[in-house]
Each structure stands twice: as C-alpha cells, then as structure tokens.
Design brief:
It is built from three helices and seven strands; from the N terminus they run H-E-E-H-E-E-E-E-H-E. By secondary structure, it is α+β, with helices and mostly antiparallel strands.
Length: about 150
Amino acid sequence: MTRFTKFLTIGLTLAALAATGASAHDGPGKRDKAPKGCRPAPVLLAGTLANDPAAGDTSFQLDVLKANHKGRLFRKAGQPVTVSVDAKTRYAKDKQASSLDAMAQNDRVLVLAKLCRSDLAAARQANTLPTVTARFVLDKGPKPAKPQTTENK
C-alpha cells in the first residue's frame, strides 16, 4: 500500500507541475505586437517599369497594372507610381538575388511593401498617395513575345 501511495503522490506532483507550466505559455502563434498606432498592411503591386533605374537610385517608377485589396489605391492613381527603395529592400531575378541596377525599363515587376493601415485610410480620405517603400522586388523580365502563327488557307 505504501508503494501505491508513493506513486500516486509522485504522479499528482508531476501533473500539478505540468499544468503550471502549460498555463504560463502565451500559446502558439502569438507574435510581438507592432508599434502602437501602426497596424501593418501588406501591399502587393504588379506592373511594368516606367524607367531604367541606376545603381544609386533611391526609387523607381512603376506602371501599376494589378494590385491586391490594400494596393488598389495605387492602381487607380495616375501612372506611373514612384516606389522608394532602401538598404533593407531585397531584389530577385531569375530565382537569384539581384540589385536595382539589374532591372530594365519595361520589365514586369512584382513589388511587396508594408504600410500602416492608418496611413492608407488617411490617404484614401485625402485622395493622395502615401509613400511606399518596397521590402521585396521580383523582376520577371520583359514580357515574352507572342509566337507568330501562320495560317495556311
């Protein structure tokens, strides 16, 4: 009987410790909150380059053809739209790391940026465009030429 009591006591102690440790965790998927006042909104813009950026440029011009829900403000605006870049901006071309000066005019480009939702709402009400700084730029190259078909009649 003492052996059973000993195992029961150890089991209850371990269960109590496990329950204490489980309740101390914030839970899966909890992230650090953004700075107060800025809830980030992902903005995705797709279009063609309107200029040929050089290595030292801090921005490029983009004719926006498509955009996600948060980026529709840029699609409806006058074209081209100025997209700023900084040292944190990453570039990719042909599945490899690239740079700003590797992009050429009329290349198809996909731009991912994050803006504050409050900035987007204020810009929508003021009928202006907020400044957009690209976080990632994917250069897809120029639009491929359509193959010409000859029809025999």
